[in-house]
Amino acid sequence: MKISTARMIANLAARGRALGNRFAWWSRWFPPATTVDAERFQRDGDPYPDHWKEFPRPWPAGHAVEPEVLTAALAALPDPWRRLVILRDVDGRPPAEVSAATGLTAEQQRDVLNRARELLREDLGRALQRKGGS
Q1: Could you give the CA distance from residue 80 to residue 85 in angstroms, rounded to a whole number?
Q2: CA distance 24 to 26
Q3: 32, 36, 40, 42: CA torsion to nearest 10
Q4: Is residue 85 within 8 Å of residue 110, measured between CB atoms?
Q5: Would the pLDDT of 115 be above 60?
Q6: Do the Cβ atoms of 118 and 35 come closer than 8 Å?
Q7: How far is CA 36 from CA 1, 2, 52, 86, in A?
Q8: Span 55-110, pLDDT tens digits
Q9: CA 122 to chain centre
Q10: Dist. CA 10–CA 47, nearest whole Å
Q11: Residue 25 has pLDDT above 60, yes or no
Q12: Would the pTM of this model clear 0.90, i.e. be above it?
């Protein structure tokens, strides 16, 4: 009775989904790269390791972003993240309703939203800098 390693892993992943194990399918929600550059955080030798070196700048008051820029920033997000941002932030749906639609718990939604919002903030911030610089 020979079972290939790939088949064993596939069976294990399927069993994990059936048992509610989040490891098998949860990783598909996150890209392989980090969301925020590690250089923006303090290192082990600093007074507050893993805390911000410098807080992100506040959004400039009175500056609006064009709808095309916002659409492009949303389009740059991974598909599952974009769907979650639209459901929660644009449509204003509650976590329970989004959980039923996506299968994510409220805590998982919070993790994805934090990462997605950081990417959006960086993209929109760059767009505002280009707009202000021209």
Answers
A1: 9
A2: 6
A3: -70
A4: no
A5: yes
A6: yes
A7: 47, 45, 11, 21
A8: 777 777 777 778 898 899 999 998 889 999 999 999 999 999 999 998 888 888 88
A9: 12
A10: 45
A11: no
A12: no
